[in-house]
Specification:
121 residues; mainly alpha; two-stranded antiparallel ribbon; 4 helices; 2 strands
């Protein structure tokens, strides 16, 4: 049985990727796709950057600090990134534009309604 075009194409692509991956030294960080949202990808490095931004810890430090729960943390951060990408696409689709002045006014209103100082907010 002859391979169809897709299978043959995937075999060539896999060989090319394998050649590239094997050329990378073990000490280098490899980036990989962890999720695809419509036509947009989320990479491992993006996920790690968001984890550090949200927790204040690098992935390695977080694994050491809270190894058993690290997988759950990683999953939740990835879900957040996916939700952000979906929201960004919907905002573009609906052509929603919000000015900085409007954002600042809304923040002020929220602080005033709750009687919060800048530090409280």
């Amino acid at each position: 049985m002859k391979p169809n075009g897709w299978c043959l194409g995937m075999a060539v692509f896999s060989a090319m990727v394998w050649g590239w991956v094997s050329a990378v030294s073990p000490a280098e960080t490899c980036n990989r796709v962890v999720a695809i949202v419509n036509n947009d990808v989320i990479t491992q490095l993006e996920l790690e950057k968001k984890i550090k931004e949200m927790t204040g810890f690098s992935v390695e430090d977080l694994k050491r600090k809270d190894g058993p729960r690290f997988g759950e943390t990683q999953r939740r951060v990835l879900e957040l990134l996916i939700d952000e990408r979906i929201a960004e696409e919907k905002i573009k689709e609906l052509n929603i534009v919000v000015s900085n002045r409007h954002v600042e006014a809304t923040i002020k209103r929220i602080k005033d309604d709750n009687r919060w100082t800048d530090e409280d907010y």
